[in-house]
Write a structure and sequence with these properties.
2 copies of one chain form a homodimer.
Chain A (H helix, E strand, L loop, with lengths): L3 E7 L12 E7 L7 E10 L4 H4 L17 E11 L9 E7 L3 E5 L4 E2 L16 H14 L6 E4 L5 H12 L3 E6 L2 H10 L4 E4 L6 H8 L4 E6 L3 H8 L2 E9 L13 E3 L2 H7 L2 E4 L9 H13 L7 E5 L4 H7 L8 E5 L7
Helix pairs in contact in A: 2-3, 2-8
Chain lengths: ~350, ~350
């Protein structure tokens, strides 16, 4: 086995839109697992919009990355060396790793991956953190009832695509905003969305919503922010619920972005707007994983991953999130099963 | 008894800030009550910020006033003629009347006023709709817990002054924003607020909050909007609750006002922001009235009314709300008990 490892580090903090110069690929050696630990060879690495926040020198829900630190992220990998009774070499696991070929993970902090349910990379998407985010955010904050109209921004992303499908299971009318005709076609033709709006080719979001959500909006699951969100807020129904999951339109802003004030509009409809972080539901992850796994295994829940090949291209995969390059979950394939 | 009545009508819809030309005082005749109705002579008339919304030609939670219509509002008055078994001439009642000397009210739609609990005008404030708004908004949306820091904007107003006192009862640290030193002194010296910030003489709301709310903000009860609210939102704690009760800073805006976007900031702290309308709690008004009445009667809940004399000055009383002329509840005295 090779003793060479590669890992991406934060080379410098971005100002505004990050670029490849923010990242540096460092050669190092494969680390040794201690008691209770596993040496894991990365198969797939997750890149996620929230990581933009970790590039800032500011406290938030996720610890900021320091310049020079190895970048962290969700991984699926194969155990190559185990100093734990729980896993054996050859097992597939998922957990929080680093942007690297190999990483040492605590056996207590990983979960087994069953490749018979879905391909390993799906455990970073519909069966991973994004799927759980969709599940709890929609059900616990959105509280969808049959007949409700649910609008999702970033609908063709890892979270949004699951949100819409669960809303359909709950008997809702589902409308998605996405950024290409290929994405909107996926939403309506494959995932069962009732309508999808290509926000890049639509001038008047209000008119598009009037047509796609003629009875107004009962639940808005927001991954994006910006003008889409501004329009949806004007269409909220009485007692509407808004789950604020992501605001990717604003993650690269250096100044506090401005926009139409939304609080005055909340009073007439008594809408509720709530920030969402999936870790708040950690005690119920088992419930979500069991259901999402069942729905994926039975084919009731569709999922899709956009795969960038090679650890060397991980920064490109991350930067592409801000251009909407991904359909479904964006992952990086770092190694394959039969690779040495 | 005189047969002449006077009533204010909407003369024209305002653009931006309303002015006296929007109102016209019309002479008419005292109406006759039908079966089940009461002829009520107005003692006190309530003017409220939400009425600005009724001057617009736009559907909202309160029906818009039409040009030429008599203006509506809460009143306390004396029954001068009763065609109902429930009330007798001489009884004091409160309900939704008009900006007039006399009005006919349905006996089913009024509540008795007990002047032994508090002066009649308090039934338009701490014991009326503003008091109930404070009660339900704070307790049901704010969900204050002992040790929480509760911030109130418009704290010396009819709603805010009650919010702060109920929050104190619940063991909270209470900070109010108000617009004069007389108001802030009332809050801290009489009502027991822990701190009060005169927003008109304070340049840096962030610094003022850092000092007045050093542990951050768990509950924000917002009557105002604008820069005060922008500052408070940056100080929200994990799982903070925001009750959006009023946004008086924006009621005269002709265009949708803009300001710093707040949704990105909700995610790290998972704050919940909810529009509040007291009528949603109508089935529980009895509970609120019983408790507020008890607290007022025992002197535990302080209240104050700013009285403008004479129906002729009702528009001035209303317009003064937007300049912060009132401390506590703004009312208009239309008649007195011993007046013929």
């Amino acid at each position: 086995m090779t003793t060479t490892n590669r890992e991406w580090i934060l080379a410098e903090r971005p100002r505004g839109e990050p670029d490849p110069g923010c990242f540096d690929l460092r050669e190092t050696t494969v680390p040794d697992p201690g008691p209770g630990e596993l040496l894991v060879r990365t198969r797939f690495l997750s890149v996620d919009p929230y990581m933009r926040g970790r590039m800032r020198d500011a406290e938030s829900y996720a610890e900021p990355w320091d310049v020079g630190d190895a970048l962290k992220g969700g991984v699926v990998g194969e155990v190559v060396e185990s100093v734990s009774d729980v896993y054996d070499a050859g097992d597939l696991v998922t957990g929080e790793g680093t942007w690297s070929d190999y990483a040492v993970l605590d056996a207590d902090d990983v979960a087994p991956v069953d490749p018979s349910v879905a391909p390993p990379e799906a455990h970073l998407g519909a069966l991973g953190m994004p799927g759980r985010t969709a599940y709890f955010g929609l059900l616990e904050i959105g509280e969808p009832k049959p007949g409700d109209t649910v609008v999702v921004s970033g609908a063709a992303g890892a979270v949004g695509s699951v949100v819409g499908q669960i809303a359909k299971r709950n008997g809702c009318r589902v409308v998605g905003f996405a950024g290409s005709d290929e994405k909107t076609a996926w939403l309506t033709e494959d995932l069962g969305f009732d309508a999808a709006i290509n926000y890049k080719t639509t001038d008047d979001y209000h008119a598009a919503l009037d047509s796609a959500a003629p009875d107004g909006v009962d639940v808005y699951f927001d991954n994006v922010g910006g003008p889409i969100t501004d329009a949806v807020f004007t269409e909220l129904n009485l007692d509407a619920r808004v789950a604020v999951c992501g605001q990717i339109a604003h993650y690269n802003a250096e100044e506090v972005p401005t926009g139409p004030r939304k609080l005055p509009g909340l009073i007439p409809v008594r809408a509720r707007v709530e920030g969402l972080l999936v870790t708040d539901f950690a005690s119920r992850f088992g419930e979500a994983s069991e259901r999402l796994g069942r729905w994926v295994a039975s084919g009731e829940l569709d999922h899709r991953e956009t795969i960038v090949e090679g650890l060397a291209n991980a920064p490109d995969a991350f930067l592409g999130l801000f251009d909407g390059d991904n359909i479904g979950k964006q992952v990086v394939r770092v190694s394959t099963a039969n690779e040495e």
